Amino acid sequence: MELQKRKNQLDFSKIENEIRVFAPATVANMICGFDILGFAVDAPGDEVAMYRTTEPGVRIRSIQGDDGRLPLDPDKNTVSACVKMLLQHLGIENEFGVEIELIKHMPIGSGLGSSSASTVAGLFAINNLLGNPLSKEELLPFCVEGERLACGHGHADNVAPALFGGITLIRGYEPLDVIKLPVPNDLYAGVVFPKVDVPTRDARQLIKGKVALKDAVTQWGNIAGLIAGLYESDYDLISRSMKDVLIEPTRAILIPEFYEMKQMAMDLGALSFGISGSGPSVVAITKDESIAKQITEKISAHLTAKEIESLHYVSAVNTVGPKIIN
Amino acid sequence: MELQKRKNQLDFSKIENEIRVFAPATVANMICGFDILGFAVDAPGDEVAMYRTTEPGVRIRSIQGDDGRLPLDPDKNTVSACVKMLLQHLGIENEFGVEIELIKHMPIGSGLGSSSASTVAGLFAINNLLGNPLSKEELLPFCVEGERLACGHGHADNVAPALFGGITLIRGYEPLDVIKLPVPNDLYAGVVFPKVDVPTRDARQLIKGKVALKDAVTQWGNIAGLIAGLYESDYDLISRSMKDVLIEPTRAILIPEFYEMKQMAMDLGALSFGISGSGPSVVAITKDESIAKQITEKISAHLTAKEIESLHYVSAVNTVGPKIIN
Q1: Quick one: residue B313, left, alpha or beta (phi over 0 = left, psi -120 to 50 = alpha)?
Q2: Tally of CA atoms within 13 A in the half-sphere of A163 that contains its CB
C-alpha cells in the first residue's frame, strides 16, 4: 500500500534528465571490528552519471577506469542490476529507463569497498533522479543485494558506511540493524593500496571457522573499548582498542611487507594500523592529517624500494556518504 | 619514591578508630559481555566493620551470614588477606593493626560477586581508615588479587563495578584497563537467586575453549550495540543487543527452570534476561522498577511451586560503589 502511494506520488514530468553522484570508498572492519564496523573516507571513491531515457530499461553506456574488468551487460553489472531491482521494486521498470556511466576512481579488489562505492552511487543516483521515494534506510537492502552479486556475500560493512557516511556498526543481520556511531573530529585515515592481488573470497577462506574463546574475549573487549572511545573522543582509548588479534595474523600473510609497514606507521605516531577490509589495502588511523600524510608517503617509498607499485590516499572520515556533484 | 612519600604523609594520630563500609553486589557479563562487562546493584551487598588496634596484624573478629563457610584464618580469608597485602604494600604492617567484622548480606556462590563485595568493602574500609592514601584505581589490583584468592582467577568483571560503581568495561588485562560506561537513568535490575549450587569453577569449565567465528561476530556486534545503546540511552538498542549466543546456551543447563524464567521475564516486558556472572542467579534488565518487581515476584512464585527456594532483589544500577555507613 505504502509503496503504491509512493509510486503514485512519482511525478515523471518533474524528474531531472540527468544526475552525477560520487560515493566514497570505505574501510571495513575498522581494524578490530571484523564484519561489524566500517567507515567512509573522502577519497578515493566512485562516480556514476545517470541519464533518463524515454525507452524503458537499464543500460550501461560506458565504464571508465576499470581496465575492462567490469561487465557491460546490465544484468551482470552490479550497478545496473541494483538500479533495475529498485525500478522493479517501485513497479516502474516499464515506465522509466536510464543509461549509466560508471567512472571508477578507485582500484578494484583493493579492500576499499570498490563495488560498494559503485552500487551506492548508482542507487543514490536513481533514487535522487526519481525525487527520493526511498529513504537511505530503505535503500540499504538494495545495496546489500549488490554486495551479494559482487562478492557472493551480502555483507553490509562496506555499503552501510558508503551509504550513510561516517562510522557504522552492523549490530546484526536478522534483521539488518545499522547504528551510526559518532566520529571524533580529528580522526584521519592514511590508506595505502599495494598493487598485489588478494581476492576477497580467498581472504575470507583463509580465516578459520573456529577461534579461541580467549582471543574472542580480547577482541570484543577491544571492540567495546573502541565504541566507548568514539563516544568519548578519547584518542588514547581508541588507540589502545584498535587491535585485531583474530583476523590480522591470518590475512597479513597475503600482504607483502605488512609488519614493516605497521612498524613504520606506529613509529610515526599512528593510533592504529591494520588491514582495510580483506586487503591488500592497509590503513593507518591518526589524530592528525599531517601524520597520516607522513605515514602513507613513507610506506609508499618503502614499497617502491621493494618494487611494489602502490596508491595512497589521506582523508578525514567522510560523514556524508554519497553526494550529487557538478 | 611516590609510595614512600604517601607513607610519610600518613598521620596515625588523625586516623579514626573504626569504620563501617557497605559494598554492592554485581552482575558480571551484563548478559552479552562475557568477562568484560559488569554492573553494580544497590542491593544486596556486604558489610565490613573495621577496628584499629594497637597491636599490629590483621585479624577476623567475626563473620555473620556465611553459615560458617568462610575461613576465620586471616591468611585464608580474602578480606583480611587483601587488607594485609595493602598494609604490606604501604610498608606499615608493623605499625598498624586491624580487626575485621564481616557481615554477609548476600549468598555465597550465587553469581552476584559475593567475594568481590566483601573484598572491595574491606579494601575501601582500610584505605579510608588510613586517610585514603590510594585512589580507587590503585586499589583495583588488590581487589583483583582478592578474586584470584577467592576463585582461582584474577577476573575484574565483578570487582571493577563493585569498586567504581556503575557499569564497567574491562577492555583488557595487560595492563588492566577499566572504562566506566554511562548508566541510563531508568535502567533497573531484577535479580533472582535460585538456591542451587553452581560453583564458579564448574560453570567456567563447561564453557568450550573454541567458539565458531560466526557466533563470536554475532556476540561482538551485540556488545558494540550495547555500548552504543548505553551512550545513547537507547533502550530499544540495549534490548536488541543484550543477547548471549555463546555462553548462555551452555551455562543455562546448570540453572533449573532457566528458559521458563526467561519467557516470564520477556513476557512481562524485560529489555533482556540472562545469567548473572556464572549463575545460578539470573537477572532481568528493565527500564522500569515496577516491571522488575513483577518479574522477580512471578519468577520466585514459579520457583516456589517447583519447590526451589529463592531470594530476589530489585534495584537500580548502583553508581557509587562502596560507601561508609553509620
Answers
A1: beta
A2: 32
CATH 3.30.230.10 for domain A2-181 = yes
Q: What CATH number was assigned to the domain covering residues B188-316?
A: 3.30.70.890
Distance CA B279, CA B130 (A): 36
The alpha-carbon gap from B244 to the nearest alpha carbon of chain A, in Å, equals: 13
| A278, A217 Cβ separation under 8 angstroms | no
Residue of A nearest to B238 (CA): A171
A200 is catalytic: yes
Shortest CA gap B234–chain A (Å): 11
pLDDT given at position B203:
66
Amino acid found at B164? F
Name the band, by pLDDT with cuts 50, 70 and 90, for residue A284: very high
Q: Which residues have CB under 8 Å from A175's CB, separation 6+?
A: none
Q: Which fold has domain B2-181+319-324?
A: Ribosomal Protein S5; domain 2 (3.30.230)
DSSP letter at B113? -
Q: Give contacts of A222 with chain B, Cβ < 8 Å.
A: 171-172
Between chains, do A170 and B221 touch, taking CB under 8 Å as contact? yes
* Residue B96: C-alpha distances to residues A233, B19, B126, B130 (Å): 44, 15, 11, 10
- Residue A200 has what pLDDT? 62
Q: What are the structural domain ranges in chain B? A: 2-181+319-324, 188-316
Which regions in chain B score pLDDT beneath 70? 1, 199-204
Percentage above 70 pLDDT, chain A? 97
Q: What is the pLDDT of residues B276-291, one digit of tens each?
A: 999 999 999 999 999 9
In this model, does residue A199 exceed pLDDT 80?
no
Q: Does B108 count as an annotated binding residue?
A: yes
